[in-house]
From TrEMBL:
Name of the protein: TonB-dependent receptor
Signal peptide coordinates: 1-26
Localization: Cell outer membrane
Record key words, sorted: Cell outer membrane, Membrane, Receptor, Signal, TonB box, Transmembrane, Transmembrane beta strand, Transport
Matches recorded under PROSITE patterns: TONB_DEPENDENT_REC_3 (PS52016)
The organism of origin for this protein: Flavisolibacter ginsenosidimutans
Membership in a protein family: Belongs to the TonB-dependent receptor family.
InterPro entries hit by this protein: Beta-barrel_TonB, Beta-barrel_TonB_sf, CarboxyPept-like_regulatory, Plug_dom, Plug_dom_sf, TonB-dep_rcpt-like
Topological category with respect to the lipid bilayer: Multi-pass membrane protein
Domain TonB-dependent receptor plug span(s) in chain numbering: 125-246
A single Gene Ontology CC term: cell outer membrane
Domain TonB-dependent receptor-like beta-barrel: 401-897
């Protein structure tokens, strides 16, 4: 805690020094005024710049601005997210000038968007496809969440992300979805350029198993101006991954404003830790315990510099998040039996410990890290501009696995061969930890200009993500064979992914009818993936005859079996047309051809339209095809362990684990080479603005996806002599692979209603109601059985359930909420503000891993004994803000104010002998309880 307590002092010293340097350059003549909307509401953060010059500033929390200028005539340009840009000529005399601004077009739904169109930016109610715009810079101070995944989870109903627990690397990188589809079926852009993915692939039993993420938490929320979410297939426009839609993150470009913020929060909650003892063993004690944990500190500092007529913004952020723990009390046997009797109680009493000593950690992982992002542009020549943006982040994470109880140590170390050695190090067993180091770097550079009406944009974007694993508080049992005091920490190796994308884009608007925009471009991309082996002790079996499992307990290290870093390239060409036939009728079309060096070519199209029925009511719709290339992680991820079994009286090394899709073993089992997923999407909806301040959008959609890639379960030879023979011949006992296995269909609708009202002159209230309902299904045949693309060898060998089980199916259909609704109220009066938000998460369902895929996830006739429905839950957030000074804002609040939890697990087997009170397989909103926070934000215009 010491470094955290020192951070505010360091920040204050830096701010004071920085301000002193900036104010020393101030001029004596000042232009000042206020920026407000048509209802008189102050627009904090509005940008005020001098056209054709490098000077600018932003409005403070009261909407006031000041700008130092030499006497003369100027054109001031005022912009604010969601409002129309205003340009005003101002004459500055010897005593300065006063100029107020009233901006038109209030309302989030009017926000001008960039994503989804290469034409002149349109307001979101005028776009032919649905686009959400989240003015993050305006709302981030009012909420308690600090990382981007969790912020978006509570703001955007179509976006779903919940933290996982005891899931190896997935504990440290939250899976996220759009419209209930995969984490890798949504494309992420920054400033309109493709963002690289993370190196990690989710291989444990969580939602989005077998998929890769884009690490949104690597991007500091305080560096973002706004987020645009295109909720429509867009592969024809942007390429691979854009099946569910596109998330475009727009970085800040403000100058002349120093922003510093600091927040701290913690969980204070009550949950039934002793639920299993209370319910199963009939204990009369109260099962609930009170917990305070998960302390989270966030600090940020940002400033925008004027560079000639350009700008450079720098934003840094540090986050320290402590772990949370909502484990249940373990009810199983802890110590080895004594003379055939369980002596747990007497042993614990003699050692002065109890069952709490043997708790696991079920909850948020610990995470500490920082990031620095930049955004730069500089005009060159008459019409040109050089630009660059990117950043670096580093995060260190810590999570735990399952406890190695003394009784399990005896079993795991070959019937006690090494048990005494382990007990000498860990008398009460041990809880092994997984430590991660995640580094992320990205930079994009480009040049744009205008020649004879054509807009040219040439750019190159590079991004790299490394994900390294370490193990601590553990042991490799077999290492005792060569070392009586073996190591307890291990370097377990890691994963690396990098991507380089080069683009050349052109666009021009022609005066054809009401306007024709023509755009075209070329793209060349290289993807690369590699595996780094861990140190020998992390994976090796030093005592082969003993039969002890190899490697470090909790996470045996990687062994690089794929050789050098694997690469591929992709080349693409596209054309995009947007024709306004009349003021009321817009038609767009896009075509894209893309060729991959590893699986061939794909051709995609998109057509969309918008019809203005009356001035306040628009109809819109689209039809498109899409694709997602198999990720490099899915093609080349491999993690196998060497085991030794007795064959013919001698020990034989065999492999078990995940093999690459192109391995000989995959071919022998009939697993085909990976190919792209393809999609067909349809959407139809309307937008309406029937009266002042009210806006409504509604969009229905259907997305059919063929050849979705999954990670199979482990194949074995238990049901087929032929399969056993194949595995034995390849030196394997079990094996799983990535493969194109299923077809799916997503159907749903989304609606957003917004109402802004100013009353009693100075009071304003903004209300937003947003709803998403999605039904994802694996496609079925005429008999209602799932269609599974499996080889005859596996089907005839009784391995279909291992290929794709009902639990795999349930992750797609019912493990995430089918419906999600949010209702928020934002009230402002003078220096005071309040935010009240309700987020409703629909029903989720856990389905046991039966070997028989299901016809209907909610058909009770097919339920297994361990299946469970988890009822819908509503989470309430509340925050109160006050401007202590014009430039200093204080916010206090609570997330999950009423301490709402998911339903507890009712089946003892799912509780794992009491350890898991809440399910770690299906998620609604996590299980941490009420979170209380306070935040300070300093906003200081420098007048430069």
């Amino acid at each position: 805690m010491k470094p955290v307590s020192q951070l505010p002092l360091r920040t204050l010293f830096f701010v004071s020094f920085f301000l002193a340097s900036l104010f020393s350059l101030a001029q004596n003549v000042t232009v000042r005024g206020a920026v407000k909307d048509a209802n008189g509401q102050a627009l904090s953060g509005a940008s005020v710049t001098v056209q054709g010059a490098s000077k600018g500033t932003v409005a403070d929390n009261s909407g006031n601005y000041s700008l130092s200028l030499a006497p003369g005539k100027y054109t001031l340009v005022v912009t604010y997210v969601g409002y129309l840009t205003q340009r005003t000529d101002v004459t500055v005399g010897q005593s300065g000038a006063v100029q107020d601004f009233i901006l038109a077009g209030a309302g989030e739904l009017n926000t001008v968007t960039v994503v989804g169109s290469r034409s002149v930016a349109r307001t979101r109610t005028e776009t032919p496809v649905p686009v959400d715009v989240i003015p993050l810079a305006q709302v981030v101070n009012e909420i308690g969440q600090v990382d981007l995944n969790q912020i978006m989870n509570y703001i955007a109903p179509s976006f779903q992300s919940a933290r996982q627990t005891i899931a190896d690397g997935t504990d440290h990188l939250d899976p996220a979805q759009l419209r209930g589809l995969g984490t890798d079926q949504v494309l992420v852009l920054i400033n309109g350029k493709r963002r690289h993915q993370a190196a990690l692939v989710n291989v444990n039993g969580t939602v989005n198993r077998g998929q890769t993420n884009t690490d949104l938490s690597a991007i500091p929320a305080t560096a973002i101006e706004r987020i645009e979410i295109l909720r429509d297939g867009a592969s024809a426009q942007y390429g691979s991954d854009a099946i569910a839609g596109v998330i475009n993150i727009v970085l800040k470009r403000r100058t002349g404003l120093l922003e510093a913020s600091s927040s701290y929060g913690f969980y204070d909650t009550k949950y039934p830790k002793n639920y299993a003892l209370y319910k199963i063993q009939g204990k009369s004690d109260d099962p609930n315990v009170r917990v305070t944990d998960g302390g989270t500190f966030q600090g940020s500092l940002g400033y925008g510099f004027n560079i000639g007529k350009g700008y450079l913004t720098l934003n840094g952020e540090y986050i320290s998040r402590e772990a949370t723990n909502r484990t249940g009390t373990y009810t199983g046997q802890i110590f080895p039996s004594v003379n055939g009797q369980n002596r747990d109680d007497s042993i614990m009493n003699g050692r002065g410990i109890n069952r709490n000593t043997f708790d696991i950690r079920a909850g948020n992982s610990q995470m500490k890290g920082g990031a620095l992002f930049y955004n730069f542009a500089l005009p060159v020549g008459k019409n040109g501009e050089v630009y660059a943006f990117g950043g670096y982040s580093k995060k260190d994470g810590n999570s735990a696995g399952l406890y190695r109880y003394p009784s399990s140590v005896v079993l795991a170390s070959n019937a006690g061969k090494y048990a005494s050695n382990v007990f000498a190090m860990y008398p009460n067993g041990f809880l092994p930890n997984i430590n991660t180091k995640i580094a992320d770097f990205s930079t994009a550079v480009g040049y744009r200009t205008k020649i004879k009406g054509w807009n040219f944009d040439i750019s190159n974007s590079f991004g790299q993500n490394t994900f390294d694993f370490g193990v601590s508080n553990s042991v490799n049992y077999s290492q005792f064979a060569v070392n009586s005091s073996p190591q307890t920490t291990f370097d377990a190796g890691g994963l690396k992914f990098w991507q380089n994308t080069s683009n050349a884009d052109v666009a021009k608007r022609y005066d054809v009818l009401r306007g024709l925009n023509v755009a075209a471009g070329l793209e060349y991309r290289i993807d690369a993936f590699g595996i780094r082996s861990g140190e020998e002790a992390s994976y090796k079996n030093y005592d082969v005859p003993s039969g002890v499992g190899p490697g470090a307990q909790v996470f045996p290290g990687f062994v690089n079996t794929i050789g050098d870093t694997k690469t591929r390239n992709a080349k693409a060409v596209y054309v995009d047309l947007e024709q306004d036939f009349t003021k009321a009728f817009l038609l767009t079309g896009a075509l894209r051809y893309e060729n991959y060096s590893d699986f061939g070519s794909t051709f995609n199209y998109k057509f969309s339209t918008r019809v203005k029925v009356v001035d306040w009511f628009n109809l819109r719709g689209s039809v498109s095809t899409g694709f997602r290339a198999p990720s490099m992680q899915q093609k080349y991820y491999a993690k196998t362990n060497t085991l030794f079994i007795t064959q013919g009286g001698s020990l034989t090394p065999v492999q078990a684990g995940t093999f690459t899709n192109d391995s000989p073993l995959a071919g022998l089992l009939g697993i085909p080479k990976l190919k792209q997923e393809t999609s067909q999407s349809y959407s139809f909806g309307f937008t309406a603005k029937p009266f002042s301040g009210f806006e409504l959008t509604f969009d229905a959609y259907q997305i059919d996806i063929k050849n979705r890639i999954i990670l199979t379960n482990n194949f074995n030879g238990n049901t087929s002599a032929q399969i056993k023979q194949i595995l034995d011949a390849q030196g394997a006992t079990t094996a799983n692979f990535f493969t194109n296995a299923i077809d799916t269909r997503a159907r749903g609708f989304e609606a957003v209603a917004s109402y802004n009202k100013t009353f009693l002159k100075k009071h304003s209230l903004r209300t937003v109601l947003a709803l998403n309902i999605t039904d994802n299904q694996v496609k079925k045949d005429a008999a209602g059985k799932p269609i599974i693309h499996a080889s005859d060898i596996l089907v005839n060998g009784g391995q279909l359930g291992n290929y794709f089980s009902r639990e795999d199916q349930s992750r797609i259909e019912v493990a995430n909420p089918k419906d999600k609704l949010s209702l928020s109220f934002e009230y402002k009066y003078s220096r005071f503000g309040a935010m009240l938000r309700f987020v409703h998460f629909g029903v989720v369902q856990y389905l046991d891993a039966s070997t028989t895929p299901i016809a209907n996830a909610f058909d009770n006739n097919t339920l297994e004994s361990l299946d469970q429905d988890f009822s819908a839950k509503t989470v309430t957030d509340l925050s109160l803000s006050y401007d202590v000074l014009k430039s200093l804002r204080l916010t206090i609040g609570a997330n999950n104010l009423f301490d709402v939890y998911p339903d507890v697990q009712t089946h003892s087997s799912n509780q794992s002998l009491g350890r898991f009170v809440y399910s770690r397989r299906v998620q609604q909103m996590g299980f941490n309880g009420a979170y209380y926070f306070a935040r300070l934000k300093l906003t200081l215009p420098t007048g430069k």
